[in-house]
């Protein structure tokens, strides 16, 4: 809470200074951008905050786990709990999996009364073990007589032949993740099959397969772990504090630890989820149909209006009608206003005779227009990000060319790639501000938010333009430092704006 408070009030100050810098320099031209030391005052404070909220690198509050680390960690957790409770690792594994890896809750419940819990979770059986001391037994699964040395049973004493055990456990694994907590193969027996029994009866392929399910249950069950949603990525993140945080995976994906989706800062998870669902939902289609089609009076088929003209011909029954008043087209003509106007409709409207269908359509139309307004901007930034990523290679070539012309180190031409990267970062943020803005209620916060959004749009477009300057312009040292400065100021503004939105732009919210 302390960090948020600092971030919040600092943001407002910084916001004013950035706006000041940006606006002044608009008039004065970019040669007048502040030098490093002028910006020092607030840069320092920002650096302090950034140091407190590390998001990447070794100081980040989370770790990225490769598949090999996961198994190691899973084993460690299991043996830790085994040691604490004084039980075997395979018992500890069953208990942890049943408790969705909630270690503290498990320990608490276990200490309260291990006996009933062990029975409830299938570590122990609730009755005396079935005993059979004869040398030859009839396997209850396949009804073959087998030597008792070729049969096997768990603690419950339910014997069956080894072949049947192999078949049963293999089948369990083939069926999928239920094999994580599979029960004894005897009808109604609740005892859970321990890991070592699987290892004993399964072939290597099935052992590996089950391990994958075990790891999955470990990652998905643990509140402090999350898979990276990046395509084909097998890494997971561990964040013991839990809650919302942007994770930077080694595969380059950024994702939200809370909802496990691709990062959606600054929009909260709830809005981002709603927005995604909306983007491909049936409801949206329905709204579109309501806003853009009308039912034919004769046959009731929905007709889409796709041109400006009001003369509609039903493609089903060929009924001709007017889009506006829905009257038969034969009553229309130059007297009613021609093809693009309908006096009958205007008269009816003037008398307040608006049909229910029209009211619904109007409402749908407004809602749809609002959504499209935000969605188009969201989508444009998304496309621009993809495009900009493709141009990174060209940018690299340009930098080398520039270095050849100007001499100096590769560091001297880094400003160009930094500019492009900043443009990408800004668009990433801008993209999700349209989801945020769509759901944000009208008020002072929205007013402040939209001003910042507009500013960032402006800076981003300008930086984008600068970054695409032809090489002849880039040779100029003034241009070079202009791009450098503009990149830095824009980047600071972006960072501050993002943190500001997340912590609240008004005092009530912050
Ligand atoms: Zn059998
Ligand atoms: Zn059993
Ligand atoms: Zn990843
Ligand atoms: Zn989220
Ligand atoms: Zn019709
Ligand atoms: Zn009409």
From TrEMBL:
Record InterPro entries: Ariadne (IPR045840), ARIH1-like_UBL (IPR048962), E3_UB_ligase_RBR (IPR031127), IBR_dom (IPR002867), TRIAD_supradom (IPR044066), Znf_RING/FYVE/PHD (IPR013083)
Superkingdom assignment: Eukaryota
GO biological process, one term: protein ubiquitination
Pfam families referenced in this protein's UniProt entry, alphabetically: Ariadne, IBR, IBR_1, UBA_ARI1
Signal sequence bounds: none
EC nos: 2.3.2.31
Start and end residues of each RING-type domain: 135-346
Catalytic activity: [E2 ubiquitin-conjugating enzyme]-S-ubiquitinyl-L-cysteine + [acceptor protein]-L-lysine = [E2 ubiquitin-conjugating enzyme]-L-cysteine + [acceptor protein]-N(6)-ubiquitinyl-L-lysine
Protein's name according to its UniProt entry: RBR-type E3 ubiquitin transferase
Organism of provenance: Hirondellea gigas
UniProt lineage: Eukaryota, Metazoa, Ecdysozoa, Arthropoda, Crustacea
């Amino acid at each position: 809470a302390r960090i948020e408070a600092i971030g919040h009030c600092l943001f407002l100050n910084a916001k004013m200074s950035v706006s000041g810098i940006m606006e002044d320099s608009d008039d004065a031209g970019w040669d007048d951008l502040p030098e490093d030391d002028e910006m020092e005052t607030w840069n320092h404070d920002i650096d302090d905050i950034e140091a407190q909220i590390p998001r990447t690198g070794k100081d980040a509050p989370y770790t990225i786990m490769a598949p090999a680390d996961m198994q190691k960690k899973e084993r460690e957790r299991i043996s830790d709990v085994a040691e604490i409770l004084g039980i075997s690792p395979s018992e500890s594994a069953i208990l942890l999996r049943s408790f969705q890896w909630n270690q503290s809750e498990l320990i608490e419940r276990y200490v309260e009364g291990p006996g009933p819990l062990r029975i409830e979770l299938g570590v122990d059986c609730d009755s005396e073990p079935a005993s059979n001391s004869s040398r030859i037994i009839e396997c209850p699964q396949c009804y073959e007589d087998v030597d008792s040395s070729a049969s096997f049973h768990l603690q419950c004493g339910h014997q069956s032949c080894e072949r049947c055990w192999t078949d049963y456990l293999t089948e369990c694994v083939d069926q999928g993740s239920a094999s994580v907590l599979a029960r004894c193969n005897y009808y109604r027996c609740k005892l859970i099959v321990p890991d070592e029994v699987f290892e004993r009866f399964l072939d290597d392929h099935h052992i590996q397969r089950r391990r994958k399910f075990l790891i999955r249950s470990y990652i998905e069950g643990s509140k402090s772990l999350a898979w990276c949603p990046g395509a084909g990525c097998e890494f997971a993140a561990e964040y013991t504090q839990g809650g919302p945080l942007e994770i930077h995976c080694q595969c380059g994906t950024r994702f939200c630890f809370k909802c496990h989706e691709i990062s959606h800062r600054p929009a909260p998870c709830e809005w981002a989820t709603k927005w995604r669902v909306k983007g491909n939902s049936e409801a949206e289609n329905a709204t579109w149909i309501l806003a853009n089609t009308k039912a034919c009076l004769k046959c009731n088929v929905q007709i889409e209006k796709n041109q400006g003209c009001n003369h509609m011909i039903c493609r089903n029954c060929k009924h001709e009608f007017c889009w506006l008043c829905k009257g038969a087209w034969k009553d229309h003509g130059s007297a009613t206003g021609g093809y693009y106007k309908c006096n009958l409709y205007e008269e009816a409207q003037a008398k307040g005779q608006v049909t229910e269908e029209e009211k619904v359509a109007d409402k749908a139309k407004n809602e749809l227009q609002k959504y499209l307004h935000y969605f188009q901007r969201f989508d444009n930034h998304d496309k621009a990000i993809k495009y900009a990523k493709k141009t990174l290679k060209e940018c690299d070539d340009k930098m080398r060319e520039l270095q050849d012309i100007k001499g100096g180190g590769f560091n001297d031409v880094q400003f160009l790639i930094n500019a492009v990267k900043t443009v990408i970062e800004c668009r990433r943020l801008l993209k999700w501000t349209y989801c945020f803005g769509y759901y944000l209620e009208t008020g002072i916060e929205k007013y402040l938010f939209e001003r910042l959004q507009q500013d960032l749009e402006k800076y981003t477009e300008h930086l984008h333009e600068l970054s695409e300057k032809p090489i002849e312009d880039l040779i100029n040292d003034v241009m070079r430092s202009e791009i450098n400065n503009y990149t830095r100021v824009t980047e600071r503004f972006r960072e501050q704006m993002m943190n500001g939105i997340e912590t609240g732009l008004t005092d009530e919210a912050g």
